[in-house]
Design goal:
Layout lengths: L1 H21 L7 H17 L5 E6 L5 E8 L4 E6 L3 H5 L2 E4 L1 E5 L1 E5 L5 H4 L5 H4 L12 E8 L2 E6 L5 E6 L2 H8 L2 H15 L3 E7 L2 E10 L9 E7 L6 E10 L3 E4 L4 E3 L2 E8 L5 E5 L4 E3 L1 E2 L17 E4 L10 H11 L13 E9 L4 E9 L7 E11 L5 E10 L8 H9 L2 E8 L2 E8 L6 E6 L1
Antiparallel strand pairs: 1-2, 1-9, 2-3, 3-4, 5-6, 6-7, 7-8, 8-9, 10-11, 10-19, 11-12, 12-13, 13-14, 14-16, 15-16, 16-17, 17-18, 20-21, 20-27, 21-22, 22-23, 23-24, 25-26, 26-27
Helix pairs in contact: 8-9
Length: about 450
């Protein structure tokens, strides 16, 4: 026992003698270091004489770009590619740089970037409660040369900033962003079937270029590349979010990868020639074809999983006879068509290409769509070399309460061979279904 006590005493003495050599030594307290980090970020932002060009993807929506000019008294002036007004009108608000999970950049008063976070759809069309799932708080991540990167505190999307030049600042302040956006939109209005050529082995593939220039949460501010591969049968599609720039568009999240090629931007080669550029700087001129590069029916199950007819909405391109069929469903969600009264409903077409099946789901609700019931009909189909479909019933209507409102559409599906094509209305592209037996029956739908 005495030996144990003696050894224990020796250890205590040894520990006491050596304690100072194991103590962590810091030149400054954590509070001082954090204060210096905050000052550095704030001075970096406000010290950019000509401001910053920023881009960010949103978690639910597309990508967006901004011009920001910070000053040392927490004022920020901003332009953005959200709409015509934001692209040409400067908006002044406030910002803060503070301590949070590191150094935190906060846009806590209303400005263009906060519109993407707004939970009220009337502000910018975002989803109720979550907006576009974009942040107003960004944590400092890193900086290098003339760039600085923040990460969204909640949705973890990067906010990347690059110092603007004097010429770029002048362009933003003279509505140059709106002019650039208008030019891109005019190009794709005039060139309805754009494509690029990509060399794959010994073959030159034509790849369709499909930018969605709208602000739709689910589909807007995205670019798709779609083409048939060298085997002549396989359709390959890839997409990415983008933001407008003064010279074209920037593809976000590291670029759009199509068959091993990483496309990073779309810019004007000259006044009238638009091109895509890959990460090596290689140029792909955007040309225009007389018809879509890939027919719509070739994209079921790859780019598009189905179609939607929203409640009491008849889309452009639908004929009078087609509207009669669709309205029998939408207007028949109340008696006397069937015994129950519903205040919301929609029709979804869902493709199962692997098994040659098409499912039509008729959804109905008594609380505006928050919940409800679904009636399902499944069809088997065959298709010929020209994309003409013939449907047969695989399983009858089951579930839900709207078999009767669906009955006219069901009859149409069984009694008509149909073709599928695109219908373009402004910036929107719909899926068009046309009867071969009676071409006066045309129905258009939202592509999903």
């Amino acid at each position: 026992m005495k030996k144990i006590l003696f050894l224990f005493a020796c250890l205590l003495i040894f520990a006491g003698c050596k304690k100072s050599s194991f103590e962590a030594k810091f030149d400054e307290d954590p509070e001082i270091r954090m204060g210096e980090a905050i000052a550095k970020v704030k001075n970096t932002l406000s010290g950019a004489e000509n401001g910053w060009i920023a881009t960010t993807p949103t978690a639910d929506g597309g990508g967006y770009s901004f011009f920001m000019k910070f000053d040392g008294t927490e004022n920020v002036k901003m332009y953005a590619d959200l709409n015509d007004a934001s692209a040409k009108t400067e908006y002044a608000s406030y910002y803060r740089v503070k301590q949070d999970q590191g150094v935190d950049l906060v846009f806590d008063t209303f400005t263009y970037i906060t519109m993407l976070n707004d939970p009220d759809p009337s502000t910018f069309g975002g989803i109720v409660k979550t907006g576009f799932k974009s942040d107003v708080d960004f944590i400092y991540d890193r900086s290098s040369g003339d760039s600085i990167v923040f990460i969204g505190k909640r949705y973890r999307q990067p906010l990347k900033m690059v110092k603007a030049t004097a010429a770029q600042r002048t362009a933003y302040e003279s509505a140059g962003l709106k002019t650039a956006i208008d030019k891109i939109k005019a190009f794709f209005t005039a060139n309805a079937n754009p494509y690029i050529e990509v060399v794959s082995g010994g073959a030159t593939l034509r790849v369709g270029v499909a930018p969605n220039l709208t602000n739709s949460v689910l589909s807007g501010k995205r670019m798709d590349l779609v083409g048939v591969l060298a085997d002549g049968n396989t359709v390959f599609s890839s997409g990415q979010k983008f933001a407008f720039t003064l010279t074209g568009t920037e593809l976000l999240n590291g670029g759009l990868i199509w068959q091993g090629i990483t496309f990073v931007k779309m810019e004007w080669k000259d006044a009238t020639t638009l091109a895509l550029y890959d990460s090596t700087g290689k140029e792909y001129i955007i040309k225009n074809a007389p018809a879509p590069i890939v027919p719509l029916y070739r994209l079921w199950g790859s780019k598009y999983g189905g179609m939607l007819s929203e409640y009491k909405t008849i889309y452009p391109g639908t004929s009078a006879n087609g509207a009669t069929i669709l309205n029998y469903y939408h207007n028949g969600l109340v008696p006397p068509t069937q015994p129950y009264s519903f205040n919301y409903g929609r029709i979804n077409f869902v493709w199962n290409v692997a098994n040659n099946r098409l499912t039509i789901n008729g959804f109905s609700s008594q609380n505006g769509g928050s919940s409800g019931w679904t009636t399902t009909i499944v069809y088997a189909y065959t298709t010929d070399a020209n994309g003409v479909y013939k449907f047969t019933q695989f399983s009858a209507a089951s579930g839900g309460y709207v078999a009767t409102p669906l009955s006219r559409l069901h009859t149409f599906m069984l009694n008509n061979r149909v073709t599928f094509d695109y219908f373009v209305s402004g910036a929107n592209v719909y899926g068009k279904m046309t009867s071969v037996e009676d071409p006066s029956i045309v129905m258009t739908f939202v592509l999903q």
